[in-house]
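Q: Trace token order:
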Amino acid sequence: TVQQRPHSPQESVSLPRNAPTAKSAEPSAFGAEDTYDSLYAKAEKMLTFGAWGNASELFRHCLEKRESWQAHFGLVRATTRELTDLSNFSAVQKDADAAFDKMTAAERISLGKRYVPKLDEKRQSLKNSLSLLERNDLHEFIMQKDKRSTLGEPNRKGIAAIAFGGILLAVFLIIGAALFGALPEQPAVGTVVLCVGIAAGVVCVAFGARAYSKEKRANAAKEAVRAVTEQTRNIERKKLMAQIDAIDYLCGFLKY
């Protein structure tokens, strides 16, 4: 008998040429064996599960296999969550164009029976939101009209305090000067009156300046808040209008 010598640890064992390596053994998400039909079926299944991102990816792989309006429109359906959220419609506008270009009139009408009623309801909901936004703007305009008209105007209390301080200072100066003339042998009396007048006038002027500055900062803050609020509402208004335009675009093709 011939005894076989075992392999030593240093000796490498050769593999057959066609033996799979560890990397090639890993399954891929979209294998070469996937056909257009199998990918499309998977995409439709993802739509039923509400897995919108997975469905979009599968529809894109369908388009890599071959061009079809169903895959283009599938991307629109996945991105807009079956045409219920048109906020990202601009991202698939070209896919919608490509799909409608290749559809027959019968196919468009068939899809319209499924989607147009929901789109009409969505349009009305968006219009209601837009109308509410406009009413809120009008209500705020009426409520804040007087406040907005006074923004940037000088603070009356501050100005009054400054004016009163100036008048008080002038009065005490006049009184002090009169006392100096009337009582030359007692200059201390005039000096005291002058000091009191100067102190009172300075206090009033300082108080008025502080009140004026505080009100000015408050008005600036109110104006900044109002500007930010108006900008936010303008952005929201544009979003609502964009969705309404997208619905009008879709219904224009799906109804006729």
